[in-house]
Amino acid sequence: MNPIRIAVIPGDGVGKEVVPEAIRVVEAALANQAEIAWTHFPWGADYYFEHGRMMPEDAIDTLRAFDSIFLGAIGHPQVADHITLNGLLLPIRRAFDQYANVRPAVLYKGVPSPLANPGPIDMIVVRENTEGEYAQVGGFVHSGFPAEVAVQAGVFTRHGIERIIRFAFDLARKRNGKKRLTSVTKSNAQGYGLVLWDRVFASVAADYPDISTEELLVDAAAMNFVRRPASFDVVVASNLFGDILSDISAIVTGSIGLAASANLDPERRFPSMFEPVHGSAPDIAGKGIVNPMAQILSAAMMLEHLGHPAAAARIDTAVRRVLADAKTRTPDLGGSSRTTEVTEAVLKAL
Ligand code: NAI
Ligand code: MG
Questions:
Q1: Which one of the ligands is nearest to 298 CA?
Q2: How is domain 1-106+264-350 classified at the CATH fold level?
Q3: What crossing angle do the helices spanning 339-349 and 309-324 adopt, rounded to 10°?
Q4: Ligand that lies nearest to the alpha carbon of residue 240, given by its number in the listed order
Q5: Is 278 in the pocket of ligand 1 (CB under 6 A)?
Q6: 290 CA: nearest ligand 1 atom
Q7: Three-state secondary-structure class, residue 125
Q8: What predicted TM-score, i.e. pTM, was given to this entire model?
Q9: Ligand 1 pocket check: which of 278, 291, 330, 338 to mutate, most ligand atoms within 8 Å of Cβ?
């Protein structure tokens, strides 16, 4: 059998620390059921310092040949974040039409939530990943002068809105959850793009009578992610709102160090990309204390996507077992374990 081909981009900061840990877990979970060929690409801030760009000009063509992309994190205190994001992450998401950014948030047994009464949180934020507020349409006028003007437009297409909403409805249907989809906008203030979003949501909802729906404005959604997080099942939102809300869903389930994500091309024309929700965490990088669970759980999402649900489930069970037993935890979860100790515990649980 041909090996599965994975392009690995550890990236910057803690990305370089958690990616090797997750690869060890994947190898152990697959045992000899499948072979993975991991090809490492040293792209990111270090590459930028040497070459003046985040990745080579032909990077997209290089990546196209792979079954999936496994990313750590991108970002460095000495490089402006709009350069890192627009130089690597966003071009990959767009070139491979990874329009569904799937971000589960589960309050695992034994993990403390910062909320007093969180309830059983088990939700997924589905974020539109190719357009919206991240479209980079706009410009500067009178750049550098006192009368400087910046215009930043959002791009909302019927095609883009409809496919992400359908994806979210299908996910709500497939999941063994509350069969509920919440759509988040700010159509009271943004009277074009998000009004179109609301209209498309209503028309697509008619095709899913078995899924109950809810529509929230993003400010109320932010409040309700804190007030009643256990009431959510699947949540669908634009690029920016989905990004912000998934940091809230991550922290109410204990730590962003547990938050995994998938950037999916649901039609499977191109490689999908799997990465934790968190960034390069320069404040803790190099200390050996970053929580590897988000990267490990992202790897499980990758295995699921690649047709190895049993191995993915084994990783999920092992992670749950380690978290349930408070012995081995990194400092973000109130423990004093090191990154590698957490990986060892997961390997042992496997
Ligand atoms: P961040 O997610 O890197 O860190 C936020 C806070 O959470 C920090 O206190 C950090 O120590 C903590 N944290 C994050 N991941 C953790 C983990 N696995 N274990 C324990 N603690 C963890 O976000 P921040 O600080 O806003 O951004 C840092 C850099 O990362 C910036 O350059 C930013 O642009 C970039 N970034 C990149 C992303 C990506 O590659 N997809 C996503 C978010 C930010
Ligand atoms: Mg984010």
A1: 1
A2: Isopropylmalate Dehydrogenase (3.40.718)
A3: 120
A4: 2
A5: yes
A6: 19
A7: strand
A8: 0.95
A9: 278
pLDDT per residue, tens digit, the chain (350 aa), is 789 999 999 999 999 999 999 999 999 999 888 999 999 999 999 999 999 999 999 999 999 999 999 999 999 999 999 999 999 999 999 999 999 999 999 999 999 999 999 999 999 999 999 999 999 899 999 999 999 999 999 999 999 999 999 999 999 999 999 999 999 999 999 999 999 999 999 999 999 999 999 999 999 999 999 999 999 999 999 999 999 999 999 999 999 999 999 999 999 999 999 999 999 999 999 999 999 999 999 999 999 999 999 999 999 999 999 999 989 999 999 999 999 999 999 999 99
Encoded tokens for 269:
């024309």
Tokens 């978290």 found at: 323
- Nearest one of 171, 182, 195, 190 to 224, comparing CA atoms: 182
Question: Do residues 259 and 277 make contact, with C-beta atoms less than 8 angstroms apart?
Answer: yes
> How far, in Å, is the centroid of ligand 2 from the Cα of 204?
27
Find out if CATH 3.40.718.10 is the number for domain 113-253.
yes
Tokens of 111: 């993990």
Return the best residue to mutate from 55, 256, 273, 323 for the ligand 1 pocket (most ligand atoms within 8 A of CB). Answer: 256
CA dist., res. 238 & res. 244, Å (int): 10
Domain with CATH 3.40.718.10 in the chain: 1-106+264-350, 113-253
